[in-house]
Amino acid sequence: MGRNRGKLARAANLLALLGVLILSGCATSQPEIPAMRPVSEYVKPEVTYPIDIYDPLEGFNRGMYRFNFYFDKYLFLPVTNTYEAITPDPVEDGVTNFFANIRQLYTLANCLLQLKPECTGDTAGRIIVNTTFGIGGLWDPATTLGIRRHKEDFGQTLGHYGVGNGPYLVLPILGPSNLRDTTGLVADTAAFTLLDPFNFEQNEELGMAYVGLNAVDARHRVEFRYYETGSPFEYELVRLLYTRYRQMEIEK
Amino acid sequence: MLRMYKGRAATAARTDRGGLLEIQWLWLLLLLTVFLLLPAPVKAYDYPLQNAYAATIIGTPSDLKAELPKKIREKHFKLAPLEGKEIPKLFWYQQAFRYSLAYQKEQAPLIFIIAGTGASYKSPKMQTLKRAFFQAGFHVVCLTSPTIENFIVTASSSGMPGNIQDDAVDLYRVMSRIWGDIQKRVEVSDFFLTGYSLGGAQAAFISKLDEERQLFNFRKVLMINPPLSLYSSVRIFDEMLEENIPGGPDNFSSFFEEVMAKFSEVYKESDWLTFNNDFLYRVYEKNEPTDSNMMALIGIAFRVSAANMIFTADALNNAGYILPKDLKLSSTDSTTDYAKVAFRTSFLDYFDELFFPFFQSREPDLSRQELIERQSLASIEPYLVQAEKIGMFHNADDLILAPGELQYLTRVLGPRAKVYPYGGHCGNIDHRQNVADMIEFFLQ
Predict the structure, then answer these.
(1) Is A236 close to B323, i.e. CB distance below 8 A?
(2) Which residues, other chains included, contact B396 with Cβ-Cβ below 8 Å and sequence gap of 6+?
(3) Which of B427, B377, B375, B438 is nearest to B397 (CA)?
(4) Segment A231-243, tens digit of pLDDT
(5) Is residue A160 included in any domain, yes or no?
(6) B159 part of a folded domain
(7) Residue A118 pLDDT more than 60?
(8) What confidence tens digit (pLDDT) does each residue in B390-428 have?
(9) How many domains, chain A?
(10) Mean pLDDT, to the nearest integer, of B431-443?
(11) B58 vs B289: CA distance, rounded Å
(12) Testing the interface with B: which of A42, A55, A118, A234 to mutate, by most B Cβ within 10 A?
């Protein structure tokens, strides 16, 4: 008993010491000298800053942003570069058209949900023309015919009916999003999986190939490279642009 | 030429004793020959935007752009950071200096291109220049501006960008290291050099440096829309922002919302799903923004570049300017508040509060005025006057020049200066006429 108490006391002392060390560690990392242009003086509470986007999970998001950089660097980009190197340009374009045609299904569903007749008509027309004359969507004769392309997803539908952004989120691999758009993404994906137009349920390998090629095509289409904008505020700028761009898409 | 043919025609008329009619026919025939022999008639310069602010923002509408190859033979390379340079944790992702090389399979001239303020080797203007020179048969090396984070962190010896002489030395070092790395890969006949905006002015300083060091012996050097005095040019941009946000910089948010609303309006009704020059042109045509609105936009773009540069220099030197001294930020710490301060810091604030004290501590006798004068092409006027290899393309309505500065430059450079009537600041850089003229300048 006595020995135990001694042990406890020693453990308590150790904890206390650890606490002091941690606290003093914090103390020394606190800035001693304020900056010449301190935040306290130059950032005014009464001023609205467009760069402020609701981001309560910023620490997590920045970690995910960093993860995405590494994922890009060590897997996504090498695979995409290999794909670009071995695939002739017309084939690359065919793949892009094919997935674009499938994404038009999402657009069609969400045009309907938002009760937009013009968008619904155009998109249905595009899908029919491209799937038939464009041979399964590998070509894009609808654009040549001048049928307007729209882009709608369930995140936009939610926004259309007044759902706000919610907290900003950086998703693994997919990158910038927010709670509303992530919900939309989950719904769109779930609908596609339920409808299963290619019968992936019976043919898992084909499903895997579809997901893989879709991802590579998506990376192939996006020029963005992490940490190459030349700005130390890249995280903030991407967050602002994403949010504003989605707002414009919702208003369209 | 015309006069010469007229002379011959007159001689022919005198010697011909035949009828008047024949003489007239001959006369007509000669005129026709003259017409056919003359080089294609010089078409009027058809860059469409005669408003300098609009030109600067919109650039060249796609139907007037030079036709350039979409895919070119190129590779991206890295240089290790300068030796002994400590990279703060905040810049953990800046591990190497990045550049690109577009290369020919056979022996060819090599051209270095230097990007303008706030632009990387991959920026849209660099893409245009790279493709144009590659198409014309050059090897092309694209270099990030010394004002960009990647350059400041990995390749700048002082980490305090904007000093054009130091930046030229840093660029020269980068260029010679690149040449060391790529000479096994490419066969080079001659070296050429160009740059736009600040990169243009830097090209002239590098050319002067090369006369001493003689590593490249550039055959020709072209400055595209360079500033004369860096200080004077940044003051113009600073003022564009500060004087054109309705209600002052504290009211930036409502101005921003207004601009976004105008963009959104055009986006909503247009066929476009992407943003490019044509989209901007449409916004411009539809809204007919005032000069003041456009100045504010240009000022904002410049301010973002300046803020990026200033914060990087501050953090890299642990200068305690915006980021408190000795504060070590990790990769998950927010920098949003520092961004807000940086966006409220003008280039001239930086000049007076960080840049000048930094260089004065190295050279106690240095005066502010002297430092300003060193950042001007006028400081190398004797070299510019005699260096036949250096040429300049500029625009009569370029915003970065104060009154009288273009006249000074054309006087110093004489026939080596070419001035287009329109284009604002670099708005016409990818116009087909400009691209053709650039190639011609180097191939002459």
Answers:
(1) no
(2) B406, B419, B420, B421, B422
(3) B427
(4) 999 999 999 999 9
(5) yes
(6) yes
(7) yes
(8) 999 999 999 999 999 999 999 999 999 999 999 999 999
(9) 1
(10) 96
(11) 12
(12) A42
Q: What value does the mean pLDDT take over residues A35-45? A: 91
Look at residue A24 and tell me if it is in a domain.
no
B294 and B308 in one domain? Answer: yes
pLDDT digits (tens, 9 = 90+) for B312-332: 999 999 999 999 999 988 889
Q: Which residues of chain A are within 8 Å of residue B90 when distances are taken between CB atoms? A: 232
Is residue B18 located within the same domain as residue B75?
no
Do residue B388 and residue B288 come from a single domain? no
pLDDT at B4: 39
A83 belongs to a structural domain:
yes
Co-location of B125 and B220 in the same domain: yes
The CATH code of the domain that includes B431 is 3.40.50.1820
Please indicate, yes or no, whether residues B74 and B203 belong to a single structural domain of this protein: yes
B219 plus B251 within the same structural domain: no
Say if A1 falls within a structural domain.
Answer: no
3 state DSSP class of A176: strand
Instruction: Give percent of chain A with pLDDT exceeding 70.
Output: 87
Range of the domain at A141: 58-251
- Contact B267/A at CB under 8 A: yes
Flag whether B429 is in a domain. yes
What total number of domains does chain B contain? 3
pLDDT single digits (tens) A70-115: 999 999 999 999 999 999 999 999 999 999 999 999 999 999 999 9
| Inside any domain, residue B93 | yes
Residues of A (220-239) whose Cβ lies below 8 Å from B: 226-228, 230-233, 235-237
| B243 and B228 in a common domain | no
Nearest residue of chain B to residue A225 (CA atoms): B122
Residue B56 lies in a domain: no
Residues 51-90, chain A: which have Cβ within 8 Å of B?
Answer: 51-52, 58-60, 62-63, 66, 69, 89
pTM of the model as a whole:
0.86
As a whole number of angstroms, the distance between CA B25 and CA B319 comes to: 82
CA distance A96 to A82: 16
Strand partners, B101: B75, B141
Report ipTM for this prediction: 0.84
Q: Quick one: B121 and B229 in the same domain?
A: yes
Instruction: List CB contacts (< 8 A) between A74 and chain B.
Output: none
Q: Which domain holds residue B100?
A: 64-233+380-443
